[in-house]
From TrEMBL:
Belongs to the class I-like SAM-binding methyltransferase superfamily. NNMT/PNMT/TEMT family. GO terms for cellular component: cytosol. It holds the Pfam family NNMT_PNMT_TEMT. One of its GO terms (biological process) is methylation. GO terms for molecular function: N-methyltransferase activity. This is NNMT/PNMT/TEMT family protein. It comes from Syphacia muris. PANTHER family: NICOTINAMIDE N-METHYLTRANSFERASE, NNMT/PNMT/TEMT FAMILY MEMBER. Keywords: Methyltransferase, S-adenosyl-L-methionine, Transferase.
Length: 238
């Protein structure tokens, strides 16, 4: 009887996820309906669900992200075996960086400028996220030659997460506050600098001019501790 109950629960969950996917396809499937917004509209108009559906439905959904997800697991092996602190700067609603670094980083901080993205990250941390990272985890595991299951990969990453931060790369003090604490005492201070800072397709999309971009890079570098590392994938800024 327990096996039947488990199977029924699995089928029900699968059906629920399929319904969600159908709803998203109906709402977001036509790219001609997408609105093009400036960097200055990011906090008010960025839609995490639309973004995830458009770029992360599968690991091969977008060429740029396919390249990132292919090379990022390999970059990990050029870094120290144990990373004390890691900041994913401008993560948007994505969690593939904590997942990739789950076995190396001891303390992971993720961040974004937009409130909607930080809320989405918090939902993932609480395992209440609507978007499924199943296929992305499977892709990462295949690159790692790992047999770890997607749920276990995500739980390992969640255990390393210490806080979700509010950030603004245009400010000299990039870290503007703590959105929520994760696996830590709220009284614990967030580091002012990190051993590793990752920023993937963040800085160029946060800027409208070359001067803004140069200033954002300068502010980002200040977040890296001496002899630390910057891991980034940057689009061509014109």
């Amino acid at each position: 009887m327990s096996n039947c109950a488990t199977n029924n629960e699995h089928l029900e969950t699968h059906s629920q996820h399929k319904n969600v996917e159908n709803e998203w396809d109906e709402k977001y499937g036509d790219e001609s309906n997408w609105e093009v917004c400036s960097a200055y509209d990011h906090d008010k108009k960025f839609d995490p669900e639309e973004y995830l559906k458009g770029f992360y439905k599968t690991a091969s959904e977008d060429t740029a992200m396919r390249i990132v997800l292919f090379f990022l697991p390999g970059f990990v092996y050029y870094l120290p075996e144990k990373i004390r602190t890691l900041l994913d700067l401008g993560a948007g609603p994505t969690v593939y960086v904590p997942i990739v670094f789950r076995n190396r980083a001891l303390n992971i901080y993720t961040s974004d400028y937009a409130e909607a993205n930080r809320q989405n990250l918090q939902l993932w941390y609480c395992n209440k996220n609507r978007f499924r990272w199943l296929e992305i985890c499977q892709w990462i595991a295949s690159i790692e030659f790992s047999s770890q299951l997607p749920d276990d990969m995500q739980n390992a990453a969640r255990e390393k997460l210490r806080a979700i931060l509010k950030v603004n790369v245009h400010q000299q003090n990039v870290i503007q506050g703590v959105h929520c604490c994760c696996n830590c005492n709220p009284d614990n201070e967030v580091p002012r600098q990190f051993q590793v800072v990752t920023t993937i397709f963040c800085l160029e999309y946060a800027c409208e001019t070359l001067n803004e971009y140069q200033n954002a890079v300068k502010n980002t570098v200040e977040l890296i501790e001496p002899n630390g590392y910057l891991v980034g994938f940057l689009d061509n800024f014109k």
